[in-house]
Design a protein that fits this description.
The structure is a homodimer of 339-residue chains. Chain A has 339 residues and is an alpha/beta fold. The first copy, chain A, is 41% helix and 20% strand. Chain A is built from eleven helices and twelve strands.
Chain lengths: 339, 339
Amino acid sequence: MRIGIIGYGSVGSALHQLIYERAWDFKNRYGLVLQVVFVCDRSGCVYREGGINPSETLSVKKSLKTLSSGFNVEPVLETIKKGVVDVAVECTPANFVNAEPAYTHIIEALKNGSNVITTNKGPMALYMPTILEEADSRGLVVLYSGTVGGGTPFIYFADKALKGNKIESFRGILNGTSNFILSKIINEGSSMEDALFEAKKLGIAEADPTLDLNGTDSAAKLVILLNHVFEDKYTLKDVEISGIEKDIPEVDSHHTVKLIASSTPNPHVSLEIIPRDDPLNIDGTYNAVEFKVEELGSVYLIGKGAGGRETAGAVMRDLVELKNRLQIQYLRKGYSHIF
Amino acid sequence: MRIGIIGYGSVGSALHQLIYERAWDFKNRYGLVLQVVFVCDRSGCVYREGGINPSETLSVKKSLKTLSSGFNVEPVLETIKKGVVDVAVECTPANFVNAEPAYTHIIEALKNGSNVITTNKGPMALYMPTILEEADSRGLVVLYSGTVGGGTPFIYFADKALKGNKIESFRGILNGTSNFILSKIINEGSSMEDALFEAKKLGIAEADPTLDLNGTDSAAKLVILLNHVFEDKYTLKDVEISGIEKDIPEVDSHHTVKLIASSTPNPHVSLEIIPRDDPLNIDGTYNAVEFKVEELGSVYLIGKGAGGRETAGAVMRDLVELKNRLQIQYLRKGYSHIF
């Protein structure tokens, strides 16, 4: 499987490394030969038909900051439009205003015959129905398990582990940064300023944590999970959003407050008072989702949120899923092998 | 898909009902037409080529206790040996001495060309490697997601939601009855006798709760999960087992004690002291497993254990999985449709 990586920051570079580490295992376990033929950052793309060893590009990226400082690069869109990969992996940072440049990367990859894996929430939160239709109409696949809880497979849990069961609703903590800060405020009596300072010091909060604190990041993940679980067509504007910057309600010792994204009655993100022994009462940077399932009652999935290697791990799941999907398509057409 | 149900107690009867309720949904969502053509209890089997409406057999079973009191039945093995179903679902009660009569039911179903779904842990805990080899050699499928945490899809979580990731080890609470009793003893200072009395009153403990309390039930689930996750060949005798009847260690207010089944270093079930804020510190009849994943760190799955409808829900997942597996087999052979 020929792979192109667009975005070479913490996720893209961890992915390149992980593909290299797992090459033997993937061939052995899934019959899947993985080969990275281009990697791109803001400065342009390095493309090599025979594959790129991560040690080369990662060392240049680390020491010289941009790929163009160490390689002859070509413009990103030009490389994508060549259509030389089976799958283009979009891992540039999210932008919830117009989702660019990722949205164009994804659409151009599809138009040129490449399947897409995205870890970037922006395009999915704003244009998920359009993107999936574009892919469907071309018989291509778009996968996105890294967009919601990279470290915790919420997406595949909902449709694969619960396939055959009936999910009625779900709610949970979808942003680790705000959960860390809120835990500090409630449990240790920290001020918002002190908690945020500590989160930045520990690398948990970014320089500009606005989207984490005002609920937008949680809402984006809620949209993606809603569309995925209920085959719906929500976008970010359908979600009522509030964050943790407003007044945090006072609670007694048996309760706590969490920023909860909820599918029901209408999609919303807001502060909620929950009992201390609710499994969703999980501190630190964890994410946690409660799925209400008709036959099973409540099932809880808890794990780490974002992080370069964790999100790269999500892409590895998507690569196996992509192979399985394509295999069924190919078998239907009467071919016997792929890749 | 033609289905036979062997065992018509809480799981078997809930399954018959659930198949009936979901028939439309399964046809619509998965293209899967479900038809129950035989149901069996200890007294024998009711077999109808055109399908059995659950209202008929369930009312006889409920009012007259045995199917033979209301129907002309035929011997169980005779019905199984006809090989008239695509899948035989084995849901008789577990027996960890020789796994009979379930083991013979499963082997005879396979020998006569039926795939098998089992919710009965006995045959899998004692003979899982043999059973899977028997199925493999005939190109048949054996599925068993109801054997481990019927209400919580541990089995499919491990191999489907985490496919492409590397599970290094796992540990958790796999028996709801002992967890309920232990929680009462630790948190409320109940005696073992009082806690057991309350569990029986609430229908959480069976008349003879020995296998729940001495760790055997947890160990059986551990064996199945081990073989499933690591493609290994463990049986019950490979697990070091202790239960909750022995001395329960004293702990301070920041810790608690749980009966933990663990894959590592060697498979074992024993009382363990864990911090109170460990996500595995979950009370009541919940089951909870921590999977340690190389790229992701710890991921926790928490939900209900056994229960008739919950375990029947697990069989519904297996039915969808069976269809997908058979579809790939059929496509490989050049057929275009199944069922």
